[in-house]
Specification:
With 364 residues, the protein is an alpha+beta fold. Helix content is 16%, strand content 46%. A hairpin with a 6-residue loop joins strand 14 and strand 15.
């Protein structure tokens, strides 16, 4: 009996340890897979993982299901480690092959915001001491002022003119905050220094800059630039776009980056409109092509599960000699599948690029 109890206890201990290992393994694997993937028609989903992960649809191989689906169809898929241990359910979309022209050519952009963006809150020196009308009323950095007393504002001058003419009477501000409209009313105060009425804030109505185009998709007629969104420097918030255009440009020189001081590209914008900006998002500035672009070939886009660590090349323009290829190494970050941005660690290894820019600089 004693031997049997020892054996049962040992088996229970082994079972408990195995259960903990399996549970921990499942949790780890869940962190290495995304909630959604794209696959090409008739292909399987191959996920890079320390152990084999098998994707199936209603018990059948995913490739069989994908071959019967149409491009654009989405469906839920089961993921299992070694084909037997359930990990999670994910969504899969069937997509067509997509080819783009990889560019690396310089472009200029002019963006006008929807209303004016609050970039700074400041003090106003009055006869009765320091006042902060806007801050006290509840206006915050990153707010977009759409109108004041029902009058639309689109420039810094619009705001200044309405405030100065208010003579201290209450002003009603229509504000967009986090995609929600709110209304805030308060009075301007008279500045002791200038004698004019002020509300204690600074706003921004537009943005302009130079960068490099990432790719052009002939299938959609969309051209993408930067690879990251245009943000307000003070707040770090994405600029809410009202309208904007991209134009031709040339890079004249670059400022070399250093630790704590990112470098940048220097250039000048031309007058030929390339496209109208439709979206400013975390992944870049997307425009509908209206002008002409020159490119030599098309390159197939790989899906995120197909990207592997290893050698790669950056195509970019850092001087007036046009786009060139520079060597680098890419490493897929552990959080890549759960993030739409900052998926890769890129290490520049090309001595030419390191000598000229110190690595990757703003606008490249």
């Amino acid at each position: 009996m004693k031997l049997a109890r020892i054996l049962i206890k040992s088996l229970f201990t082994v079972f408990l340890i195995l259960s903990i290992i399996i549970f921990a393994g499942v949790i780890y694997l869940q962190t290495t897979v995304a909630d959604e993937y794209k696959i090409k028609k008739g292909e399987d989903l191959l996920i890079q993982s320390p152990v084999p992960i098998v994707a199936s649809f209603n018990g059948a191989a995913l490739s069989d299901a994908a071959s019967r689906k149409s491009v654009g169809d989405s469906f839920s898929v089961d993921l299992k480690a070694f084909g037997i241990i359930p990990i999670s359910k994910i969504d899969v979309e069937v997509v067509d092959e997509l080819y783009v022209a990889v560019l690396g050519t310089p472009f200029g952009m002019k963006i006008y915001t929807n209303g004016v963006m609050v970039t700074s809150l400041s003090d106003v020196q009055t006869e009765n001491g320091v006042k902060q009308p806007a801050k006290v009323a509840g206006i915050k950095l990153g707010d977009y002022i759409l109108s004041i007393n029902g009058q639309a504002v689109t420039t810094n001058e619009d705001v200044m003119s309405i405030v100065e003419k208010s003579n201290g009477k209450k002003l009603k501000f229509e504000i967009m905050r986090n995609n929600t409209k709110i209304y805030i009313s308060f009075c301007a105060v008279k500045s002791k220094e200038t004698g004019s009425y002020k509300i204690g804030l600074w706003v921004k109505d537009s943005s302009a800059g130079i960068g490099t185009l990432t790719f052009y998709s002939p299938a959609t007629d969309i051209v993408c630039g930067l690879g990251h969104g245009i943000c307000e420097e003070e707040t770090g918030e994405l600029l809410v776009l009202k309208r904007g255009i991209i134009v031709d440009a040339e890079i004249i020189s670059s400022d070399k980056g250093a630790v704590g001081a990112p470098g940048k590209l220097n250039g000048r914008m031309g007058y030929q409109t390339i496209g109208e900006i439709e979206n400013n998002c975390q992944m870049g500035v997307y425009s509908r092509l209206t002008g002409n672009l020159t490119f030599s070939k098309l390159t197939e886009i790989v899906l995120k599960q197909e990207v592997k660590d290893g050698k790669a090349q950056i195509l970019c323009t850092i001087d007036n000699k046009g786009p060139k290829l520079y060597d680098c190494i890419i490493e897929v970050r552990s959080s890549a599948y759960h993030s739409k941005v900052q998926n890769l660690l890129i290490t520049v290894t090309d001595e030419r690029l390191l000598d000229n820019t110190g690595g990757i600089v703003q606008g490249m």
